[in-house]
Write a structure and sequence with these properties.
- The protein has 116 residues and is of the alpha+beta class.
- It has one domain.
- It has 3 helices and 6 strands; from the N terminus they run ββββααβαβ.
- The protein has a 4-stranded antiparallel sheet with strand order 5-1-4-6. A two-stranded antiparallel sheet has the order 2-3.
- Strand 2 and strand 3 form a beta hairpin.
- It starts with 5 loop residues before the first strand and ends with a strand.
- 24% of the residues are buried.
Length: 116
């Protein structure tokens, strides 16, 4: 059995939006594709299911984006690589510093990337 520890949510934003992301502030998100890299030490499938659910308390940065109108997850990928290693290998542009990475010790700017 493979022990996945990291997941990536591939996200589509249908039209440009401006959102308040918790304590990070307000940000503009252009329409297009994004990838969010996260991890869960235990109960990863429950974490993913929570991200995909519509009715949830806004707890993590990603919750604010996924809760917005016109935003949906198009694909979920799982990995055995560490969260930061996988994130750093993933192409894309950082639009919101510290998004999902406010406690990152590996030098990640953000765990959300805009895909060109």
């Amino acid at each position: 059995m493979i022990n996945f520890i990291t997941y990536q949510l591939f996200i589509e934003v249908n039209e440009p939006i401006t959102l308040a992301i918790g304590k990070l502030g307000r940000f503009d998100f252009p329409a297009g594709s994004y990838v969010y890299t996260g991890s869960a030490k235990a109960h990863m499938e429950a974490r993913i299911a929570r991200h995909l659910s519509v009715d949830k308390k806004l707890r993590w940065h990603i919750d604010y984006l996924l809760n917005a109108c016109g935003v949906h997850v198009s694909k979920v990928a799982r990995s055995v690589e560490s969260e930061c290693t996988l994130n750093q290998k993933t192409a894309g542009t950082h639009l919101v510093a510290k998004f999902g990475a406010s406690d990152c010790q590996a030098g990640c700017i953000s765990h959300l990337k805009y895909l060109p």
